[in-house]
Amino acid sequence: MRTAFIVDNGTNESLLRFTETKLFFDAKNQGISFVNNVEIVPTIDSAIQMANAVDNSVILYTGNFLTTTFRNKHANTQGIIFATNDTDIIKFDNDTYVGLKKKSHYLPGSKQLYIIENLLKTCLRNQRLVYLENTEDLNLEKIPKQEYHHLFGLASGWKTFELADYIGFNKLESITVYDRNVEQLNYAQWLHSHSELPDECPKYKNVCGIYDPTCIYKEVWKQWSRFPVNFKKINLFDIPVFPDQSLIWVSNVFHYEPNIFDLGWKKCNNMRSQLINSNKDSTIL
Fold first, then answer.
1. Which domain range does residue 147 map to?
2. pLDDT, tens digit, for every residue of 158-172?
């Protein structure tokens, strides 16, 4: 894979976070895999020096947006890619503010405004988004085969229920459904309150996916509804410590676009490492 070196002068935090975020998501907020690591450096010379120590890299300035054309052109390029003056990038002014506190100075119809507004819309929608189904597949083969006493799973979709079924309800001392989105947590608690799944779910303004109870085995759901599941508001970025021998499903929380834009990719990555190190006797998915 490839490391991105962002040359940043430390004067525009919002533009730096935007630049980091858009290395992993395109203009339409779809995930991309052009790089897998980011380093922030103060000068082009330091970027080149560090890039010489890794196999493949791309060097860019804060405010450089790598377009699909650029990424396709360099998909198989080896060594150092200099994006700074490439004709297939989109440049944002050094004083560009990316956020909700003030309006962007870019004109309607410009590529810059389109990219910024798409990102901000996603961030706003995320604040009250309710996931009726999961956006990632459940790969049970990735779960280490060991004894688990506790299960902590996000409130979105069906995956925590499916993980409980996979481990075995009779083997678990506790199940906790958690989220930092209270509306998502209330939805999961509403589901659990039914011994038989309703044909329809409550109406929400912002949803992801489709409510489809026909995909759930009725007998297994009855076990789930009888189990004394805990529902708790937890923010993983607070680095909580879970009980030993827990299976903790965190999904893509640390690689979620609104979170990366809020905190920066480096900080999200570091906080995931902190969470793992703080829960060494548990498994984090």
1. 130-284
2. 999 999 999 999 999
pLDDT (tens digit per residue) in 107-124: 999 999 999 999 999 998
Q: Tokens 């834009």 identify what position?
A: 261
Task: State how many domains the chain has.
Answer: 2
pLDDT tens-digit readout, 251-269: 999 999 999 999 999 899 9
pTM of the predicted model, to two decimals? 0.90
Domain end residue (candidates: 126, 151, 180): 126
Domain harbouring 276, CATH code: 3.40.50
Is residue 159 domain-shared with residue 269, that is, in the same domain?
yes
29 and 89 belong to one structural domain = yes
Name the residue with tokens 């703080």: 278
Are both 58 and 134 inside the same structural domain? no
